[in-house]
Amino acid sequence: MCGIWALFGSDDCLSVQCLSAMKIAHRGPDAFRFENVNGYTNCCFGFHRLAVVDPLFGMQPIRLKKYPYLWLCYNGEIYNHQKLQRHFEFEYQTKVDGEIILHLYDKGGIEQTICMLDGVFAFILLDTANKKVFLGRDTYGVRPLFKAMTEDGFLAVCSEAKGLVNLKHSTAPFLKVEPFLPGHYEVLDLKPNGKVASVEMVKYHHCRDEPLHALYDNVEKLFPGFEIETVKSNLRILFDNAVKKRLMTDRRIGCLLSGGLDSSLVAATLLTQLKAAQVQYPLQTFAIGMEDSPDLLAARKVANHIGSEHHEVLFNSEEGIQVLDEVIFSLETYDITTVRASVGMYLISKYIRKNTDSVVIFSGEGSDELTQGYIYFHKAPSPEKAEEESERLLKELYLFDVLRADRTTAAHGLELRVPFLDHRFCSYYLSLPPDMRIPKASESIQDQNCPLNGIEKHLLRETFEDSNLLPKEILWRPKEAFSDGITSVKNSWFRILQEYIEHQVDDATMAAAAQKFPFNTPKTKEGYYYRQIFERHYPGRADWLTHYWMPRWINATDPSARTLTHYKSAAKA
After folding, report:
1. Quick one: 278 and 338 in the same domain?
2. What stretch of H or E contains 201?
3. 364 is in an annotated binding site
4. Strand pairing partners for 132?
5. Is the pLDDT of residue 483 over 90?
6. What residues have CB less than 8 Å from 256, skipping those under 6 apart?
7. What positions does the entry give for L-glutamine binding (predicted)?
8. Given phi > 0 = left and psi -120 to 50 = alpha, else beta, which region is 185?
9. Taking a C-beta distance cutoff of 8 angstroms, is the pair 219, 237 a contact?
10. What integer best gives the mean pLDDT of the chain?
C-alpha cells in the first residue's frame, strides 16, 4: 500500500502543485519522493511509500538501467512476479514486485503486461521513447486510482481524490476529478509540451473470465465437472492458494476477525499457511465492537479455536460519532452503509497502527458479493437473477466495500489484502452453475432454528465443513453485517447513529433536501448529515457516488440487514 501521484502538462508552478500530493501522505508513512521527468519540466511524479518489500531499493518512480526511458509509479502487489521472472528469464535489478511491469511491457506491450499481472494494483507508466502514458487498475479496484484531465491535455493522477481536488489549471477553475474504472487501462499520447491526449480506454478483464496469468501459475490441477465433491475440492485448493500467495511481505502480517464466516475462514487459513511457511511470530487477530457485541463473542471463539494472538477493541457510541467527520474525509463518499461500516474499521485500524507492529492486514472483503452473502439474496427471483446481481456487486465494489476497506486502513498506514477477490478463485466460483450458488437449507443449521429458506453462502460453508478449520457454530453462523455485528441486537449501530442525528438535522432542513442536493437527494436525516460533511470537504463532488448501496427485491428503505424480515425472524428464533 502506497500513495501515487503524477502530473503531465501542468501550467502552474510544480512546487506549488506538489503540495496537493501531501494530502495522501498517510498512505506511505515510511518515505516520500517527488521527481521531475527529464525533458519535460511540467511533468512530475510523487510517491509516498509504505515499505512492504525491498526496503533498500523500493523507492519510486522505478527506473531501471536497462530501460532508461521508462518511469513507473504503482500501488499494489504483484503476487506472481517471481514466477514470471523465472519463466521469461528476466534479469531483475531490485526485489520489488512491480519491476515485473517494466520487463513485461518491454517484452510485449501494455495489453499483454496488464493481463499477466496476478495481484491488485494501480499504476502510471511513462514511456518517453515512444511518447506514451499508460494508466491501469486491477479487476475489482482493490487499489484506488483517480484522474483529472482537461480539454487542453493537462493530466493529474492520484491514489485518492483528495490529492487532486485543490490542483489549479488555467483552463479549468474547477477540475473534474473521477475514479479510474477497475479492470481497465488507458493509453495516452505524450506531446512535446508535456500535455497528453487519450488514445483508447480498454477493458482488459471480466471477473468471469479465467485470467491470462493462469497459464503460468503452479496451482494444483483442478478437477473437471460440477459434482459437489469436485467443486468443494477445487474451491479449497484455490482459496488456500489465494491466501498463500498473499504472504509476500517483509512486514508483520495480521488479520481482521469479526467472527463472521468470511474473516474467520481467512484467519484460520492464514494461520495454517503461516505455520507452513515457518513464520516465527504469532498471528495477531483483531476484533472491534461495543459491549454485548455478537461479533466480539464470535471472534473470541474463533481465535481460541485457531490459536491466534487476539486483540479486542471496545468503543462506545460517543467515540464512534466523534470520528464521523474524519471517516467521511478519508472515505471520499457519503454512502450511508459505507459510512456506518467504516467507523469500526477506521477505529480498529487506528488501534493496530498505534499498538502493534502488524502492517499487512488480511480481511474477508469481497466474499459477500462473490458468494451471494447478503441476506436479500434469499429473495432473488431466480438463480440467474442472483448471478446477475452478484456480478453487478463485484463490478461496483470500488464504490463501496473495497473503497471502505482501502481508505480506513490506508488512513493509518496499513496495507489490506483480500484473498476472496483472488482472480482465479473468483473466476472459478462464477463459472459454477447458478443454482449451486444460491442460499439453501442445510441439516447443519437445523439446530440453530434458521429460517426455512436456508442460509446464504451455503456452498462456501459446505466446502469447509469437514476441514475443522472453524467451530461448526461459526461456519454456519448466519450473515451479520459488520456495521450491525459490532453492537448488540437490542441497540444497533445504525439506530444509535439515527438517534444522534435526529437532533442534528431539523425537519425544515430535511424538507429542503431536494433543493440543496438535487443529485442523490438524501431521503433520511442520517443521509443528509453525511452529505453535509462530505460537501464541506469535497464541495460539488457528489457524482463520485453514482447511487446509494441498497438491498434489492425487497423494497428496503434502509441498507441495514437488521431491518429485513429475514433477519428479524432469525433473531427471534
Report:
1. yes
2. strand 196-203
3. yes
4. 127, 189
5. no
6. 263, 285, 286, 287, 345, 348, 361, 362, 363, 364
7. 97
8. beta
9. yes
10. 92
* Reported confidence tier of residue 442, pLDDT bands at 50, 70, 90: low
Encode 105-167 in three state secondary structure.
HHHHHHHHHHHCCCEEEEEEEEECCCCEEEEEECCCCCCCCEEEECCCCCEEEECCHHHCCCC
Sign of the Cα pseudo-torsion (390, 184, 95, 237, in order) = positive
Q: Indicate the residue type of 124.
A: I
Q: How far is CA 372 from CA 110, 400, 450, 543, in A?
A: 34, 16, 17, 27
* pLDDT above 90 (res 192): yes
- 426 is annotated as an active-site residue: no
Per-residue H/E/C for 348-387:
HHHHHHHHCCEEEEECCCCHHHHCCCCHHHHHCCCHHHHH
Task: Order across the sheet with 3-8: list the strands.
Answer: 31-37, 40-49, 3-8, 155-158, 146-149, 177-179
Cis peptide before 61 (omega within 30 of 0): yes
What is the structure's pLDDT at 482?
Answer: 52
In angstroms, the CA 374 to CA 342 distance is 18
Distance CA 50, CA 250 (A): 11
Which pLDDT tens digit goes with each residue over 246-289?
999 989 999 999 999 999 999 999 999 999 999 999 999 999 99
Total domain count, the chain:
2
Specify the pLDDT at position 173: 84
Do both 32 and 168 map to the same domain?
yes
Q: Is residue 305 in some structural domain?
A: yes
- Cell for 197? 491526449
Give yes or no: residues 282 and 411 share one domain. yes
Q: Closest by alpha carbon to 418, among 370, 356, 485? A: 370
The span from the first CA to the last CA of the chain, in angstroms, equals: 43
Are residues 500 and 364 part of one domain? yes
Q: Which tens digit of pLDDT belongs to each residue from 386-423?
A: 999 999 999 999 999 999 999 999 999 999 999 999 99
Instruction: Tell me whether strands 3-8 and 155-158 are parallel, antiparallel or unpaired.
Output: antiparallel
**Which range among 178-187, 287-296, 540-549 shows the weakest confidence by mean pLDDT?**
287-296
In this prediction, residues 433-450 reach a mean pLDDT of 72
Per the structure, the complete domain to which residue 79 belongs is given by 3-203
Residue 238 lies in a domain: no
Q: What are phi and psi of 124, to 5 degrees?
A: -125, 120
Burial 326-362 (b: 16+ CB within 10 A, else e): ebbbbbbbbbbbbbbbbbbbbbbbbbbbeeeebbbbb
- Amino acid in the structure at residue 275: K
d(CA 475, CA 477): 6
Query: Does the pLDDT at position 361 exceed 50?
Result: yes
Sorting pLDDT into bands at 50, 70 and 90, what band is 52?
confident
DSSP state of 60: S
Write the CATH number for 513: 3.40.50.620
